Amino acid sequence: MPGREKAIPHVSGDKEFSNTYQYWKDPESLKKAIKDGLMSHEMNFKDFRWMEKSLEGEMVLEEGLEYFNQKNADGKSCASCHGEDGAELKDVYATFPKYNERVKRVLTGPSQIEVCAKERLQRDDWGPDTRPNSLLAFYVASLADGAVINVDTTSEPMAASYNRGRDLFFKRVGQFHYACSSCHTPPTAGSYLRGQRPTTFFGDAAQYPIYHFPYQLAGDDYSYVFTMQHQIRSCQQLSRMYQGKEGSASMTDIEVFIRASANGYPMSVPVAEYNMNTDYLEREYNQ
Ligand code: HEC
Ligand code: HEC
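# heme C complex -> structure
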């Protein structure tokens, strides 16, 4: 698929794709675009979710906090090292994924949590695509609410990962011969697709992990929380691609690409993917 070379690791890169960045670059711009009567797909659907916190999401965060404080057989928990309720992990999620010198690989939020759980708490079953991992990632991400995303793609391993992720994103694969970019760049992004509106990949990471009620992948029991890789897998399933394993090198590369494409944008967690409540559009922003 064409367009790959235009992608840059910053949210303003969207100017070269949908040129809708002006509508959603900050809350004021969004409010203005809504007031001017732009339809959500015309503004690339970078919409209201990001501004409106999810109450249900808040409640699920409590479950993440319970895992955070859950003691292992030695009486240790995440909180033993990272402070009460994770006080010392404030804002760090906005810098993930990052290269870890010690384990010699790029770690996403969920894979850092896996490393800590396994090495430091002897919990071998808290890896990506499990309930504790997803809820912990959601909780730790919420500690970075409002922090500006800043994934450093300048180091050699991170630059290489970003480039591989970008290649994968623009590569046609699977039964339908789609690339991620088939849907997530114009003209498909910016129009309706069976009632859904796929967006360009810029800025999307700002709301992940996300509360995804009422949809979940078969077999899940993660209180409807979707991490970024869970969302990627859901798209792979939808578009009949081979589904990557969460935490694998290739899925990590795609996540690096998408998260870095949100650089410069503030995180907003917890929000809901399907926010059924549209009252606030009338109430607050449409006057
Ligand atoms: C025994 C101490 C210890 C425990 C327990 C522990 N961690 Fe860590 N954690 C660390 C250290 C040390 C690092 C530095 C990175 C590394 O070496 O993995 C770290 C790094 C992190 C980071 C990234 C911080 C940054 O600034 O980049 C996150 C997020 C994190 N841990 C989450 C958790 C979670 C969630 C748990 C519980 C499942 C947990 N940790 C349990 C010691 C611990
Ligand atoms: C057949 C079209 C299609 C393909 C191909 C596709 N997606 Fe999606 N994607 C969607 C739709 C539709 C949504 C949901 C948009 C909505 O309603 O908010 C979505 C949502 C997403 C989101 C969340 C966006 C947000 O605002 O919450 C991410 C991230 C994403 N896709 C990444 C990918 C990746 C990575 C691939 C390739 C592995 C991919 N998608 C392939 C259609 C597609």
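# post-check
Strands lie at 98-100, 105-107, 210-211, 225-226.
The longest helix spans residues 55-69.
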